[in-house]
Design brief:
The chain has 17 helices and no strands. The protein is an all-alpha fold. The protein is elongated and about 90 Å long. It has one domain.
């Protein structure tokens, strides 16, 4: 009677390469997450802001030949994006600021709509990637095959990277291509060839540390709701703490804001007259000190004819019109343009930056695009993101190995 060996048997077939094993984990995770209809709808809606920024690039390129478009994009850059230097440069030399204008629009695309979409998307996807495996013991099935903990973590990370690239890198590269197609000639490639590389670098800055942090939270618990709460609390509390510590002291030093009349009560004539007199007196004092130019652009304010080459030339724009004399020290120049009340002019925006992941990422991404708006060094923010990445992945690996050692 034959004796059968009931133990483990060696695999006689061909094994998959070590480099492709994480892809098997990632493929299963992507297919599982993609089944959710709300995720597909979220990705579609996350790509819609590209229409707004694409229209802004169209306005900039059209401004070279149309005065109305030049007026519109100048207003947008001066007041919405807080870059009056670019608004003036468009009137004098349109092509020389193309790189900075495109970089400003793409950076804003990263910082405002896509960063908030990233927080929401990762908060709904990442917590379940490892916590579900820990709760259902599915990790035992993974590691019953020739798969190392590092390959498992890389595969889970690739799930997040795939979905984040669909709402960041791919739309941003599409936005760049829109700008190229709307340009008058292909010489724009010589001026903006580095922007695709900066987009990829900014995407890496965004997705790698956030993935490490999200997977770290997911590995701490088998209940995904706790990881989800920790993720959103980190972003929310960091944002609130940064703004409170940065601006609260300046607000206190500047005094409380003026009281508004209560709802339902009309302002008295004496109060209105007093406010007008106080405003006129303040304006006269500022004009007497030479800090205010009542007509910085020329006769007639901002109009479609004021931005033509005959109205504004290099000799008509001086340092006193959009320089430190008008906007105040620290608001315009190498340190960036930061309009606001006088008590906020000298606020140190970098002192508490490391408390907020949003501000830390913004600092590094601005540096990547060459548009860092503050004077502080970028290296503390870089060190913080590197520390989050290394420590986060190390904790995830430790948690996985500890489960396998039981």
């Amino acid at each position: 009677m034959p004796v059968h060996d009931l133990g483990y048997r060696s695999w006689a077939g061909k094994r998959m390469s070590h480099f492709l094993r994480p892809w098997v984990v990632a493929r299963g995770g992507i297919a599982l997450v993609w089944r959710r209809r709300w995720l597909r709808m979220m990705i579609i809606f996350s790509a819609l802001p590209i229409l707004i920024f694409g229209f802004a690039i169209f306005m900039f390129e059209y401004a070279a030949t149309d005065a109305d478009a030049r007026h519109g994009i100048s207003q947008l850059l001066a007041f919405q994006f807080r870059r009056p230097d670019l608004a003036l440069a468009i009137a004098t030399d349109h092509s020389s600021v193309r790189h900075d204008v495109w970089a400003t629009l793409i950076l804003t695309f990263f910082r405002v709509p896509q960063l908030f979409a990233m927080v929401l998307l990762v908060g709904l996807i990442a917590p379940m990637l490892i916590s579900y495996d820990l709760r259902s013991k599915a990790y035992l099935l993974y590691f019953s095959r020739p798969l190392s903990p590092s390959e498992y973590i890389l595969g889970k990370s690739a799930v997040i990277w795939f979905f984040l690239c669909t709402i960041t890198a791919i739309p941003a590269l599409a936005l760049y291509l829109v700008g190229v197609f709307l340009s008058p000639d292909l010489s724009v490639l010589r001026e903006t060839w580095d922007l695709p590389l900066r987009i990829l670098a900014a995407t890496a800055v965004l997705v790698i540390p956030t993935t490490a942090l999200a997977l770290c939270y997911s590995s701490f618990t088998s209940e995904s709701r706790y990881a989800t709460f920790s993720w959103f609390a980190t972003w929310g509390m960091g944002f609130v703490a940064y703004n409170f510590l940065t601006y609260a002291g300046a607000r206190v030093r500047g005094g409380p804001p003026g009281r508004r009349p209560r709802r339902g009560r009309r302002e008295r004539w004496e109060e209105a007259q007093s406010n007008v007199l106080n405003t006129d007196t303040a304006d006269q004092a500022v004009m007497a000190q030479g800090q205010f130019n009542p007509d910085p652009i020329g006769a007639g304010q901002f109009g479609p004819d004021q931005f033509g080459p005959d109205q504004i030339g290099p000799d008509q724009i001086g340092p006193d019109q959009f320089g430190q004399g008008q906007f105040g020290p620290g608001q315009f120049g190498p340190g960036g343009f930061r309009p606001g009340p006088p008590e906020l002019e000298n606020v140190d925006l970098d002192r508490w930056r490391l408390l907020s992941p949003y501000e830390t990422l913004g600092k590094v991404q601005s540096w990547v695009f060459g548009l860092d708006p503050t004077d502080g060094s970028v290296w503390p923010s870089v060190a913080m993101l590197v520390a989050i990445t290394v420590i986060g992945f190390a904790i995830v690996r430790y948690r996985i190995v500890a489960r396998l050692s039981v």
